[in-house]
Amino acid sequence: MKQYLDTVRHVLETGTRKENRTGVDTLSTFGHYYEHDLRDGFPLLTTKSVSWKNIVVELLWFLSGQTDIGILQRHGCKFWDAWADESAGNAQTSKLPPCHCLFTFNVQNEPIGGQLNASTAGSSSATEMRQRLCLHLTQRSCDVALGVPYNLASYALLLHLFSHFTGIEPGIFGHTLIDAHVYTSKSDGSKAEYDHVPGLRHQLERTPRRLPKLVISTTIRDLKDVEALMDPKLTTDEVMKHFVLEGYDPHPAIPFKVAV
Predict the structure, then answer these.
(1) Average of pLDDT values for 219-241?
(2) Has residue 56 been placed in a domain?
(3) 240, 56 Cβ separation under 8 angstroms
(4) CATH number (domain holding residue 160)
(5) For the chain, what is the mean pLDDT?
(6) Is residue 235 part of a domain?
(7) Does residue 101 carry a catalytic annotation?
(8) How many domains does the chain have?
(9) Marked catalytic residue, from 77, 99, 134, 142
(10) Which residues form the domain of 12?
(11) What global pTM score does this model have?
């Protein structure tokens, strides 16, 4: 996905060193925006393998409103283990305050057969219109190597899900990154095990592949059907068969150590 790779380049080229709560330095930038048209494919990175199961199960957890990580653990999703504590549910004391803090749905009209622009907006020929459901995510803190690939795919899935409910075709996913950063070793060379720069540079050398297509089961009709997927009796395969990703053929995974 070119937009993500451009974001990586932007942070690596313009980021400045900054300390943060983890004790690991970052290359940090302020205020970056990109967008992706979901008609071009589902935005799960192909320049490295990303766990589709983790993305689906995490979104189900978000939608459930649960403050414990039980559903994640049942399906073998371990990446929230490091942040789970007795203060879960309290954003004022949690180890990890919410990073993706606001999302907004928006319906846009476009003329059938082309994009709506200044030349067609006032034209009498542009009378046949169709709607597109769009979503904008505002994210306060953005770990470019580890978090952002999950965040963009998670909210693209949310957009697809509500498109599925409403019958309005999915359109643009827009993403504003307030503090977009890459974790890096300190100036003295310490904390090198947390340095994400080499892995990201390796990822930039890879050629992006064709994006996959998401197919949501017709048995998922509303949020009650989504809630039913949180039944602890269901296996991971029974959950995942409702969210099929066709044609996902990524490059191999690139390991990044998380800074807690």
Answers:
(1) 94
(2) yes
(3) yes
(4) 3.30.572.10
(5) 90
(6) yes
(7) no
(8) 1
(9) 99
(10) 2-85+96-110+129-246
(11) 0.90
Q: Using an 8 Å Cβ cutoff, are 225 and 60 in contact?
A: no
Find the mean pLDDT for residues 188-199.
Answer: 96
pLDDT at 166: 96
Give DSSP secondary structure letters for 84-142: --TTTT-TTTSSS--SEEEEEEEEEEEETTS---HHHHT-TTTT-EEEEEEEEEEEEEE
**CB-CB contact of 236 with 71 (8 Å):** no
Give the residue-averaged pLDDT of 231-251: 96
Q: Look at residue 95 in the predicted model and tell me its pLDDT.
A: 64
CA distances from 127 to 57, 106, 114, 221 (A): 41, 21, 12, 31
Give residue-wise pLDDT tens across range 102-145: 999 999 998 887 654 555 555 545 568 899 999 999 999 999 99
Nearest Cα to Cα of residue 163 among 220, 205, 210:
220
- What amino acid is encoded at 60 in this protein? L
Whether 171 is in a domain gets the answer yes
Residue 222 is classified by DSSP as S
